[in-house]
Design a protein that fits this description.
mainly alpha; Tyr_Pase_dom; about 230 residues; about 0% strand; Tyrosine-protein phosphatase; single chain
Amino acid sequence: MATRKRRAEIASAGSPADVDDIDLTSAPVPADPDEHICKIPDSQRLFISLTGKAFERALLSKLDWFSYLRVITLALTGYRPDAIRLIGETIMQPRGLTGLAQDTLETSIPEFRSIFTTLATDTSYPILIHCTQGKDRTGIIILLALLLAGVRMDAVADDYARSELELVPEFEERMREIRVLGLGEEYTRCPPDYVPDMIGFLERRYGGVRGYLERIGIDAGMQDLIRQKLLVQG
């Protein structure tokens, strides 16, 4: 019986048909990848996937041995949607939005480093941060940025909760998309405990947001540059 560590090694190494190339992101892929992106004149766009290979491998490593073999079998025999649904039902749904956000912080280190390096670059401003829905992946980035700026937890939580109201018109469409992934209605929401749980996680694991950013390669000087950009000088 393979250990979790061994399954992680197998997932990292890949499979005969590159099984860990399964797209596990919760966002649907549009026919035209640019169809939801505003064309802003004289702007530069930086595409960063917070749920890339490292995140996918981390999810695969959480599968028990039997489920892992099922995923491989389904993927290799042309049943990729069923493989994705199996991962959604057995790993993503139990982890919940908060658990997956924590997994993202721990696995997508190069991506977060790139994002905050951009935020620390003077010529990047003004800057717009957005994902498909503007709630989950965007939410993690904004959470870190607001905490770095010293914003109170209740204000951060209020800001995050406002995203749910903005997505109400798309609720039914979003539900159809996430059911295909084996996920429940809570994935369309902004859980009230999300922000305090994420702050608690950062405090326990890294001593806070500054400790996390230091860990991923954003030093104190870069953090101060970001703070200067985000804070209004009185």
